Give the backbone structure.
Amino acid sequence: MIKIKFKTFMMIAFAVTIGSLFYSCVSTSSHPQKDMDQMKDNIVYDLPESASVSKVSYFYEDYKGNPTLHFEVDIKNITQVAHRYRLNILLPQGPAVGGMYPRKKKAIEPGETLTRKFPVYIDSKKLPSNFMPTGFTLVVKEL
């Protein structure tokens, strides 16, 4: 009688262990990858043939004493002629930023890459202070 109860107890313990191991493997599936795939679907580039974007990053950095979301974008002139560009970054949640490439010079020389950082004003009444974009549209226009 005790032997049967012990075997039953061991079988239940084994089943619970295997079940919890299986559940932990299933529950740690590729959710981050799914989020990254959705993010890639929400990123849109609108570029002229004369420009390429070699890097886009966004992060929080202090700006005027407050942590502020920043976008950093590298634009490369891939033609044999100097060009000037206008960049607009549009977020689906509302805020937008942009500026001229280059800011003070007349043009980006052929083959040259220029990096600029843009702080994003976020209205604290509409979005949380730790807001991170779910996607963006990056528009570059040749001037």
Residues 2-34 form one domain. The longest strand covers residues 51-63.
